[in-house]
Design goal:
Blueprint: E1 2-6, H1 11-22, E2 26-31, H2 34-43, E3 46-49, H3 55-63, E4 67-70, H4 80-98, E5 104-110, H5 136-147, E6 151-157, E7 159-161, H6 168-179, E8 182-185, E9 191-196, H7 197-210, E10 216-219, E11 222-226, H8 227-238, E12 242-245, H9 247-254, H10 258-261, H11 270-276, H12 285-290
Parallel strand pairs: 1-2, 1-4, 2-3, 4-5, 5-6, 6-10, 7-9, 8-12
Antiparallel strand pairs: 9-11
Length: 295
């Protein structure tokens, strides 16, 4: 298959590109820069000049291919709400090019969308269209396209990691380095889920190849790693003290990370594994933190 891949030079997208190519697919990777085009050429992909805000370029790229994987997302959390709406517009544009065919579109979301109640483990077959997390916009766009007959699948991500990056944990590491302490919220029992980047890329490929309309997948190898353990591991690796903050102190220390570090973000992938045969094999989050290269 010839696959149009957005975010093709990003952390997740670049690994997805390599996974697709290794499995015999052709990749048309969207990029905004000449350096991105060179990186794509080096991995055996074809570069496609474009941007997720250029909706016409998204439609053209999708129309030229047998399927689409959308991994691009603006991770500027200072403008998170608007960036989620930007993602919604991009998804609708990509889907409009596939309407009237069975060509698959795999979009990206968060496992947070699968949690019915605070502290309840996220599952694949749950989705609340009124979810307060702005990222709900991505799945609402997918739902709209599904109702128009587009073959849409949703890939929900946990903390995706290797030794260089670990999702939101990378931001927690940077904060610890900046403040001189590795902190967690006292009394909080929240956990985060995680998956190695190679396992994540393989699941994206499996979702694309299965072409199952309306399916949701959880890229979750580890269902629940306590945030306290994450903070302790960071402290050990950076040689910093670990500190338990009172709830009223959390916002001043964590800033924009507060809503994340105070929540349980555990998730199940039982349905994903049963449906796709996915069997993650990569290192654990703690192992990658113990060997991280951005110390």
């Amino acid at each position: 298959m010839r696959i149009f891949l957005t975010g093709s030079t990003g952390f997740v997208g670049s690994h997805v590109a390599l996974e697709l190519i290794a499995s015999g697919h052709q990749v048309l990777g969207m990029t905004r820069s000449e350096s991105g085009a060179q990186a794509l050429a080096a991995m055996g992909a074809q570069a496609y000049p474009g941007d997720i805000e250029d909706l016409q370029s998204l439609k053209r790229g999708a129309s030229e291919c047998d399927g689409v994987i959308h991994t691009a997302f603006d991770h500027d959390f200072a403008n998170f709400i608007e960036n989620c709406q930007k993602d919604r517009r991009a998804i609708v544009s990509l889907g409009s090019a596939l309407e009237g065919s069975d060509r698959p579109l795999v979009i990206t979301s968060s496992t947070a969308m699968g949690s019915a109640l605070p502290g309840q483990k996220a599952i694949e077959n749950f989705f609340n269209p009124d979810h307060p997390n702005p990222r709900v916009a991505s799945e609402l766009a997918g739902l709209e396209l599904s109702q128009r007959g587009v073959n849409v699948s949703v890939m929900r991500l946990s903390q995706i990691h290797d030794t260089r990056k670990q999702g939101l944990v990378t931001n927690v590491v940077e904060l610890a380095r900046k403040t001189g302490v590795s902190a967690y919220i006292e009394g909080a029992l929240n956990s985060w889920s995680a998956t190695h980047i190679d396992d994540t890329a393989r699941l994206f490929r499996l979702a694309l190849e299965r072409r199952e309309p309306g399916s949701r997948y959880h890229a979750t190898a580890e269902e629940a790693i306590s945030f306290r353990r994450i903070a302790q591991t960071i402290a050990e690796q950076l040689g910093l003290p670990v500190v338990a903050l009172r709830t009223e102190e959390a916002a001043a220390h964590f800033g924009w990370l507060t809503p994340f570090v105070s929540k349980d973000m555990s998730a199940s992938s039982a349905m994903t594994r049963a449906r796709s045969g996915w069997n993650p094999q990569g290192p654990t989050l703690i192992t990658d933190l113990e060997n991280m290269t951005h110390i």
